[in-house]
Amino acid sequence: MRIVSLACSNTEIVCALGRADFLVGVDDHSDYPEGVVASLPRVGPDLEIDVDRVEALEPDLVLASLTVPGHEKVVEEVDARGLPYIAPEPTSLPDVYENIRTIAELLGVPERGRELAQEMRAVLGDGSRDAGEPREGPSILVQWWPKPVIAPGRRSWTTDVIERAGGRNPLGREPVKSRPMEDTEVHRLAPDAIILSWCGVDPAKYRPDVIYRNEEWQDLPALQEQRVFCVPEAYLGRPGPRLLDGYREIRRVIEAVEAGEPGEPRDPPGKRCDRAGSRARSDTGKGTRGG
User: Fold this and answer.
1) DSSP states of the chain as a string?
2) Number of domains in the chain
3) 196 and 245 inside one domain
4) Is residue 255 part of a domain?
5) Cis omega before residue 33 (within 30°)?
6) Is residue 275 assigned to a domain?
7) Which of 80, 122, 152, 181 is the most buried (most CB within 10 A)?
8) Same domain, yes or no: 254 and 190
9) pLDDT digit string, tens, across residues 214-253
10) Residues 162 and 88 in one domain
């Protein structure tokens, strides 16, 4: 079977299902597993997929995605060419599990799909959502982008992961994938910790000092207690197996907050994140482009 993946998460799901050998092409941002994707033909960045290249690879199945706003135009062109495809749009952990099972069925490994979904569910939970009282636990603001601040809402698997880890998303009751926030709103919500998980940026280049020098936020607990952390967006912005890494990273943040331990240092200006991982690109994209 010949598979072309147009999203990082789909590439990682195929590999986790043990079918990396089916991949004959991937998007420009797929970077994991490095040993698999390094030698594969590239078909362009997420919003500029070269469908001619995709078609030339003669795929039996194209794995697209609608988690990247604007990707629907790519999907329309794939459809117009008559290429077989799926384009999931997960917004919760249950959706992620279902997407994994669907891809596994299409790849002829349904049992492995069920196993992988169960392995994730055992750690991340079933993603059940209560519409009742707000959850307890530290308030964790995840930044997809710094200016303006973009943060996930209720229709994001990231909210499920934060809650499973024992935290609260300040926008976790708003029925949006993500949205921009004014600095004054962030100040009003006063998160206990801020996580930098910037879209399309090398995690080693995340800038905690951008947070620390924001004049509007100087009396926020997160800044006063030095609770600014860095988590590669590949762990939070891709609806696939590496959400397990994202959960572990958020647990690390919550444990640090509860123990009164600091995150990234305040000085010197321009200092990058000490604990950031390898270069990462998500399926959420920049700004309000996704979940």
Assistant:
1) --EEE-SHHHHHHHHHTT-GGGEEEE-TT--SSHHHHTTS-B---GGG--HHHHHHT--SEEE--SSSTTTHHHHHHHHHTT--EE-----SHHHHHHHHHHHHHHTT-HHHHHHHHHHHHHHH-------SSPP-S-BEEEESEETTEEEE-SSSHHHHHHHHTT-B-TTTTSSSSEEEE-HHHHHHH--SEEEE--TTS-GGG--HHHHHT-GGGTT-HHHHTT-EEE--HHHHSSSSTTHHHHHHHHHHHHHHHHHT---S---STTPPPSS--S----SS-STTS--
2) 2
3) yes
4) yes
5) yes
6) no
7) 152
8) yes
9) 999 999 999 999 999 999 999 999 999 999 999 999 999 9
10) no
Q: Which range marks the domain in which residue 18 is found? A: 3-124
* CATH code, domain with 62: 3.40.50.1980
Which residues make Cβ contacts (< 8 Å) with residue 114, sequence separation at least 6? 101, 104
**What predicted TM-score, i.e. pTM, was given to this entire model?**
0.90
> Per-residue pLDDT tens for 61-98?
999 999 988 899 999 999 999 999 999 999 999 999 99
In angstroms, the CA 281 to CA 54 distance is: 20
DSSP β-bridge partners for residue 168? 139
Note whether 167 and 100 are same-domain residues. Answer: no
pLDDT above 70 as % of the chain: 89
pLDDT of residue 221: 92
The pLDDT-based confidence of 269 (bands split at 50, 70, 90) is low
**What proportion of the chain, given as a percentage, has pLDDT over 90?**
84
Phi-psi region of 188 (alpha: psi -120 to 50; beta: other; left: phi over 0): alpha
Residue 291 lies in a domain: no
